[in-house]
Every structure is written in structure tokens, then in C-alpha cells.
Amino acid sequence: AALADGKVTGDCIECPYHGWRYDGDGHCRAIPSLEAAAKIPPRARVDAYPTVERYGIAFAFLGDLPEAERPPIMECREWGQAGWRATTIVFDWDFDYKRSIENALDPAHNEFVHTTHIDKKEDNPFRIPPLELINHDWGTGFHIEMPAPPMFEEKMRATAGRAKASIFHIHAGYHGISSFWTFIEPTPKFIRRQHFYETPVEVGKTRIFTVDMRNAMRDPKDDERMIYMDTLVMKEDARVLLGIRPVLQPATNIRENLVQPDSHMAHYRDKLKEWTAMGWRIDQDEVDRKKMKVAYAIPSPARRTSKHWTLDPLPLIPAEAGSATSKISSIDSSVRDR
Predict the structure, then answer these.
(1) In a designed cystine with 294, which of 93, 122, 290, 321 is the match (CB 3.0 to 4.6 A)?
(2) Which element (helix H / strand E) includes 234?
(3) How many separate domains does the chain show?
(4) What whole-number distance in Å separates Cα of residue 76 and Cα of residue 80?
(5) What is the helix (H) or strand (E) element at residue 201, kind and residue range?
(6) Interval 203-217: pLDDT, tens
């Protein structure tokens, strides 16, 4: 049975099927049906994962890598700093997280998907200039100037002093396989720095945690305005993403027509291949092939020192011989410090 359907009892999670209780390290501490003096089998345990709380989100590292080798969490530098206020939202969508990341890296969709982003002119469409990608150890970012209409929301428009069409500065990029950031700068008086942490729930299902920082309109009463705008934009994106086929990225780019403005998206796909070559990707085809007969567990760090497990670890696509090991560092300051 799924422990997710159980309940917390003391310092343990109680299984909803037979009442077995597991502590925070995954060890079974109680089996009600056994006699009081009975010994709990050493294999009566589940995987437990490293966790940390940041930016109002509980992050769990689902894997067995030692701490020094784990990809770092994307940093939100403005969190808790004077002069900034945060709003957070959680979205659940039936699309693949990688498609969502690619959407964020695509400046060409703004003119056609979003009602608030581009100052549209039928006889003069927005031409995407060649993007200069700024690399860091865990991804890339770029800067682009976009012709934007007057700001959509009345109070935001007045606060920024942008009542007419003007140029907005946009900085965007990805961090690791499932995080991205978008910095929107109508004026220095009004800057929004958005951070998106995406969690693949299962194939084709994604939960997105958003942390939106702003340096203006910091009254808590204005939070709803920000949440409204973020939700509006997300729903516009979702309207398109929900209809994309195939649901997953194709195995090769020749199955889709990529052009110059898609360079950032292509770079993301190349980076995913690098991480796959390191043995970091689940072999989903093998999981699907055995899903009616085998229950797998994502391996935790404890599996490196103990052999007593009931469930087999998830099958991974084998690492390629000689694949490079990514360096671990925080995001390059040349990308983030604006």
C-alpha cells in the first residue's frame, strides 16, 4: 500500500493497510500484528531521502548521490532580503516538465500566446535577434529586449511609470533539469524576479512551485494582484502546452523543426543528453514494461551502505563510458546579477 495514503503517528508514518510504522530514516519501528517480543525484520524498511526547506518549499533529493555530488537547488537571492516581497503559487498540470522548461526558454511564443507581453504590430512582427547564451555549470541564460505594451494591470502600470508601449528587459534561463528563472524589468523601480521549481509527478504530470519576488508594491494587499497576473500567464501557457504532441520530447531534434530562436531550447536538450550520459535518467520504457509485475523504489543514499531492501531500485539508462562529471557550483553571477 502507498504510505502517502497513511497518517502521521508520533514520529512515524503509519501504513494504511496493516499499520506498520516507519520513522524518518525509513526504518520500520512497529508491526502491530507481531507479538510484542518479536524482532522486526531488517528488510522492513523504505527509502528515506535528504530534504531541505528553502523559499517556503520542502525540497527532497530523490537519488543516492553523496551530498557533494548532488545538483544544487536553484538560488533565489532576493528571498528574505530587505526591499523585496515574495508571492508563491503551486500549479498542477497534465504536461511534461521538460516541455514546460522549453516554453520558458522560448522568446518567440510570447507574441502569439500571451496577451500582456508583446506590443503587437501586424505589419511588423517581433523578430528574435540571435541569442547570446551565457553558460553556467547547470544550464544557460540569456537577455533580450522586447517591445512591450503598456503594463496590463492598472496599479502596476502607475507604479512602474509605464503607461505607454516601451522596451522591457527580460533575463531568462534554466538551472538543472527542472528549474528556470525569468527576470522582468519594466523599469528599475519595478523589477520582478520569478523562480520556478518543477516537480515531475509522473510521466506527463507536473507540479510547479513558483516564487515571484518584486521590489515594488510590497504591501501584502498587493499580493493578489501578483498572483492574478502569474496565474493569467500560466494559464495562457498551459492552453498550448496541454495540446503539444508528442507529450514528451522526441528522441531526436529532426522530428521537430527548430530554427534560430530555438537555440536556447536546443541547448537545454543537449544538456539533458549530457546528464543522461552520466546515468542520471530513469529507464522509463523498462519501468513501463514491468509496471504490472514489479514495484520499484527510487534509490536513497542509504543503499550505498546497506543491502537489506525489499524493493529493487528503479532501472536507469546506463551511464556512457567516459562521460564528464558536471561541476557543482551556484549559478554564474554574470547571469543573475542585474
Answers:
(1) 290
(2) helix 223-241
(3) 3
(4) 9
(5) strand 190-202
(6) 999 999 999 999 999
